[in-house]
Amino acid sequence: MAKLKQEGKVRYIGVSNFDVPQMERAAKIAPITSLQPPYSIIHREVEAEILPWCQKHGVGVINYSPMGPACSRER
Question: How many Cβ atoms from other residues are within 10 Å of residue 1's Cβ?
């Protein structure tokens, strides 16, 4: 992705389901523009470390499954 960005073939690099160490490793190679984590009122794990890291580093967050697990059979 970094090479494609350098060549002008992509404008931005986004990642999905990365934790903080993975984002730190990736950011050393190329800037991360956005992260796509699961985030809902039930699954709020990203609030502890991931969201603060994104805010500090200017990484946008586009969450998925805001209403809970997309394919959950739990009742």
Answer: 15
